[in-house]
Structures are given as C-alpha cells and as structure tokens.
Amino acid sequence: MIRKGRETVKRALNTESDYRGGTLRTLIWKRPVTLWLLPAVFLFLTTIVPLAGNHYWFIDPMPRVHGLVLLLMSFIVAHQYFSFMHRVPASDFYFSLPAGRTRLFFGLNLGALACLLGPSFVTAALHFALRLLRDENMPSLPFAVSHGYAAYWTPILSLWIRMLIFFFMMLIFYLITEKTTTAVTLFLLVNAFWPAVILLFTDATASFLPGFIAPSLTSEAVISPWIARVIQIFSPVSAFFQESDTAFSWFTLLLLALTFLTAWALFRIRPAENSRQSGRFNWPQTITQWMVVLAVSLLGGYAGHYLRVITTLSAAGQTAVSSPLPFLIGVFLGLILSLWAFNLFQGKGRIRWKALILPAAATAIPLAVWLAVVITGASGFSTELPLASDVARVTITYSNMDVWPLREHGYSSVKVTLTDEKEIELFTALYRQILTPENPGLSLPRTLSSNQQVRQFAENQRQTLWPEKAKTGEGLTSNYPDTVFTLETKDGRKISRRLPLNENIRNDCFRALIARNRDYFLAEYSFKTLVDPYAVTGYATPAQYKLEIRPAQNIPPSEWPRWVFDLQKDMGKGEYISPHDFFQMRGLIAGYLLSSSEAERGLYTETAPCVLRVTLFSGGESESPDASLILDYPVNPDRLKPLADFLRQMNQRMR
Predict the structure, then answer these.
(1) CB distance 637 to 644 below 8 Å
(2) Dist CA 557 CA 552 (whole Å)
(3) Which of 635, 425, 619 is nearest to 516 (CA)?
(4) Which helix (H) or strand (E) element contains residue 545?
(5) 8, CA 20 to 30 Å: which among 93, 226, 471, 591?
C-alpha cells in the first residue's frame, strides 16, 4: 500500500516536471514566424537575387548588409525574449519555473540567437554555395570565392561575433533597468555618446597641445586599434562603423566572453520583484547621464570656439582667435543645457534642484582640471626639446594608409631610425625651426586653434622658400602631413610628438638630412601624401622632378621582361598607368624595403629587372641632376607579390 502511494506521487511529480519542461520549450521556441521570415526575405533579395543577373555590387559589401539586418533584429529579438523582466506577471511566471535560473538563461539565449543568426547563416551559406557553383562554370569571374574560402567566411564570422557582443550588451541593459524603454534608451545613449567623449577629449587635447599624439589621430585614415577597443567596450555598435581589420582578435573574443558572463551573473542574481520598479536601479542612469553631459559640454565648447573663428577670419583665411574664452563659454552653456534636459526628463517635466548637484560636480570637476592643464600648456609640453648631444636615437613613424596595397598586405606603418650624431643634429634643428617664439600656436593661453596655428606657421615657412610659387598663386596651401617621431635621450627618456615640420627640398636642414640618410629620403618621398598624390614628392608644391624606368645594368637586354618595355612606353603617355598608379607602386616598394631585413632587401635590389628612378630638381629641370637627390625604386615583382598583382592588372588594361 505504501509502495503504491509512493509510485503515485512519483508519477504525479514526473507529470508536473514534463509539463513544466514543455512549457519552457514552448516559451523558447514558439515565437512569431516573422522573426525568421522578414530578415531571411530581405537578405535573400539583397544577396541572392543579384546573382541571377550578373550583378556584383552586393557581393563585396554583403557583411554590411547582414550587419544592418542583425542590428535591427537585435532590438526585436531582445524585446521578444527578455522584456518579461520588466512586467510583473510575466516575471513572476518565468522565475517560478522549476528549470532554474541557469537553464532558463541558456534556453532563452539559445532561442534568441537562433532567431537572430539563423536567417543570416542560411542566406550566407546559400549565397556561398551558389557563387561556388557559378565560379566552377565561369572561373574568370571576379571575386571568385573558390580562390579563397577564408576570405569569404572570415568577415561574416567576425560580424557574427561582434553582433553577439552587441546583443549581450543590450541584454545587460535589460537586466540593470526597470523598464524596457529605459533599457533601450540608455543603451542607445551610451553607444552614441561614449565614442563622442573619447574622441572629443583626445582630439581637443591635441588641438590645445601641439605635438600631442591623440590616439584617434595616430593614423591618417582610421582610429588607432587600442582606442577603438576602448570605445567598443561600452559602444559595441561603433565596431560596425570603423574601417578596422575584420579578422578575429583575442580582444574581441575576450569581450564576447566578458559580456556573456556578465549577463549570466546579472540574470542569476536579479530578484523578480525588480520588475515592480522598486527604484533600486539609479546608477545606470547616473553613468549614462555623466557620459551625455560630458559629451554635450565638449560639443558646446567646439561650437562656441568655431563660431568665434568664423566671425574673425582674416583676409588670408587665418584665424585671429587668441583667447580660450569662447570655448569656455560654450562648455558652460553645453553643461547647463544637458543637465537641464536630463533633469526635466527624470523629473517628468519638473526641475529637481538637489538632483543637479552630483552630476554637475561629476562633470565640472574633471572638465575644470583638464582645462587648467591644456590651457596653460601642460608645463611646456609642446616646447620641450632636449639638446642634440643628449639624444641617442630618433624614430620617425610613417603611416601607409594612403597606399591601398600596403593596407591589403599588412604594411600598416614603417619606421625610420636615426642614430648618427650628425643626422640627429639635423633633425633636431629641423624640429627647432617650429619651436620659435614667433609661432602663435605656442603662445599662452592655448586655444582650440593652437595646433592649427602651428600648422599654418609651418606652411608660412615653406612658402617663403618658394617665392615664385607665391607670386603666381600656385600651391599656397600644401597641407603637408604632420610628422610623428620619438626622441630617445641617453638617460632613457622618450619624447613622442606629432608636429608639422618644414620638410622642404629648399630647407637646408631637410636637404642635408635626406642626402645623408637614404631610408629617410625614401620614406619622406613615398608616404607623405594628403593633397596631391599625383605629385612625385607627395606635396602640393613639389620640386620639379623627372620619372624614368631604367633596366638593370647587370641583366642583359635579351633577358628583360616584357613588362619593363611596357612601363617605359607608358611612362610619358599615361594611357594605362596614371601618376597615381606610379605613386602606389612607389609606396608599395618603399614599404617592403623599409620593413625587410638587410639580407632580404639586398637580394630584392640585386635581382630587380629595373628601377623606377625619381630625379628631383630644387630649382628647375634646367639644373644639373644632383646625385643626392636621385631616388631609385627597384621593381622586382618576383619577390613582391602585391607588385606582381599590380603589374598583372596593368598588363590586362593594356591588352
């Protein structure tokens, strides 16, 4: 009798457990079919359908199309699966299930990610299969996926990882807030204003302190990798708008694990009664408010300063603003406006004066300290220059982001090192030409235009060396790129700066330096390009120059490759190879030479079938060539694959 009673109770418990398990499975998987259907249809129309009509304009940006869909679907899926935490009846029901918090968390996320990534995976796989079949029938098509499976799948897999970070970050905001609207609003504000805070602070510091290397300005074309990672910590959406490498990185995987574990821990400890809006969660709004107020305050400073600049431009287009007061007024107005708007929002239309004290102090104190440092020049930061006799080494860094083949093959930057005493003396003399009392950008107090005034001062120095250009009005705004360099003193100190220098062929210091150090000469005349990439020197006001293709003397004419003659033939015509093509070719060769070992460099140079010779004339082509101003670029496609690809494309154009 007792045994029968036990079996009855056991069967009842099993029935209840099966019922609860079925309920959980229903909650996870029984969702509107439109969660799958809508993104799948859109991705099918934008990535699959174009293949039927030989349209390739959607192939290259396909990860971006998937990224846009996944961004939008993240908000919908998160609301479908996790908005129950903000509703009292639903929260009580979910958390009363006997499955346990861990099983509930993993189950809900499994269903959510299936809805989020499922349509993207299916359409990407179908797109890949169709293109693979098409390539087998038409192997000459461009962008053939059969030539590199990793090149196709790596950007998509990287996108999915970044998307998971975005989704789990949003889930964290659902777990630390009381209402769905609050979670979404704070998530959007943090994603928008956290990057603004980082970029505005670093760039404003570089504007007040000439020479300061702002992390977001270390490269000419993209944000530096580590500052991009700092931004991505609180703003995962920023990763979708950065021209960064799509390959996997340990940081991305670590950030994914961190956001997932944080969401899991918060889900396990979140009491169900929080859905009743107990008022305990104030700190997320406080942190978000701090980010927004800080960003708006800085934006107000920028607006105030540049409004003053517009109204005080001189006839020559130079600003006469010499006071930080417009910036300070703009910061104050931005601070008051943002605090007032947040207070009205939190007080539902009424101002709560006591609530203003903490956010005002949290924003005003760091702003005041920062302003006191930068306006006073940070104790002579911009004017520090050790004696040449105390410097042991000078390292100059060149960014190659303007040379696309270099970006494609990993030559993100190159460095040139000066260790010879005479070379160091010449470089410090070149540096000292900017650090003069006549330079208005170095006067106190500093303003947001100080860095621009230093650039204009350097530009004026260059123009004085070209009086014939000034008379004709040619090349009065060359906008030379800044020089990034590090001085290492003999006692171990390092002084890193980013400044415009008078790197002009008519400047005696510069000319003597390029004559002594061929690597410096090669780097200066290969990577310094902003305004006029067609000019051989990379400058908008170049010296007169001549380009030649010269076959190697140690190779018999009968062994010269066909492409050598093609280059010679097209050099003067420019029918198939533009001056910009020659610039890309020079940058590619220089990047390889400056990044290779001495043995590799020697072998590359000795076996090159020809050289691209650049002859510079500081006065005009009528003068006799100066051997110190002749620069040879060995052209050796057999040892430089990107160069071989370039010549192959040139050969196809000429056919």
Answers:
(1) yes
(2) 9
(3) 425
(4) strand 544-551
(5) 93
The β-bridge relationship of strands 413-418 and 483-489 is unpaired
Longest Cα separation, the chain: 120
As a whole number of angstroms, the distance between CA 263 and CA 257 comes to 10
Positive or negative, the CA dihedral 98, 102, 108, 114 is negative
With beta carbons less than 8 A apart as the criterion, state whether 457 and 441 touch.
yes
- Give every CB contact of residue 446 below 8 A, 6+ residues apart in sequence: 208, 209, 324, 374, 375, 376, 377
Which residue shows structure tokens 């003659």? 565
CA–CA dist 76, 54 (Å, integer): 34
What's the alpha-carbon Rg for the chain, to the nearest Å?
31
Partners of residue 551 on adjacent β-strands: 610
What gap in Å lies between CA 159 and CA 37, rounded to an integer?
A: 21
Peptide bond into 445 cis (omega under 30): yes
Nearest to 24 by CA among 95, 113, 121, 123: 95
Q: Which residues contact 317 (CB under 8 A, 6 or more apart)?
A: none
Residues facing 550 on adjacent strands: 611
Rounded to the nearest 5°, which phi and psi values hold at 253? -65, -40
474's enclosing H/E stretch is none
Q: Measured between alpha carbons, how far is 170 from 174 in angstroms, rounded to an integer? A: 6
How is 635-654 classified by DSSP, letter by letter?
A: E-GGG-HHHHHHHHHHHHHH
For residues 613 and 547, the answer to whether their CB atoms sit within 8 Å is yes
DSSP, collapsed to helix, strand or coil, labels residue 321 as coil
d(CA 27, CA 33): 14
CA distances from 625 to 428, 513, 521, 621, 631 (A): 28, 18, 16, 8, 11
In the beta sheet, which residues pair with residue 545?
Answer: 616
Edge-to-edge strand order for the sheet containing 630-635? Answer: 544-551, 610-617, 630-635
How far is residue 605's CA from residue 612's CA, in Å, rounded to a whole number? Answer: 12
**Model pLDDT for residues 417-428, shown as the tens digit of each residue:** 999 999 999 999
Residue in the structure block whose two tokens are 């390292």: 395
HEC string for 41-62: HHHHHHHHHHHHHCCCCCCCCH
- Enter the tokens of residue 389: 């006799």
Interval 219-275: pLDDT, tens: 555 566 777 788 888 888 877 765 454 455 788 889 999 999 999 999 988 876 655
Q: How far is CA 283 from CA 33, 191, 290, 434, in A?
A: 37, 17, 11, 48
Cβ-contact 208, 328 below 8 angstroms: no
